[in-house]
Amino acid sequence: MSTDDLQLGSGGGGGDDWATGYTAPTLAPITTPTRDEGDGGEVERCFPGLEVWVVEWLAPTIRRQHNENAFRWCPHWWAHPEAISRLNGLWEAWENARTEGAVAMLGWWQVLDHHLTILTSTGGPFAQCTHTGHRSDGTPLKTVPAPAGTWAEG
Question: Phi-psi region for residue 58, left (φ > 0), alpha (ψ -120 to 50) or beta?
Fold first, then answer.
């Protein structure tokens, strides 16, 4: 299947007035491999790494208007440690859910909605950024060392 086969429609024409002038994104084909229990149940990844997944799947799929009061995305998302951690977890979960079927993917979307809301909120890691540029994260959380004997030593 070529990416041309994945066009969602060209807009216009019978009953598609809402789509007039809309050009659907071309999405990369996603295959759903089966788990091979003979090799430990590992599934070949669809994307080789986090950056490729964000650039080739997440960013083209999630379409929002940047809004200073509600939705903030940083084009330098990779410069935010919290974003890297959350997005990496989302990517790993996506790779697993895509092999499990529709119900697993619906569950993944719920998890994405939760984390995307945090990432892009006015209090999230992208809060100081604009849609065109990056500003450093806020101040790291302050900590005080725990008193001796607080943690079991092993």
Answer: alpha
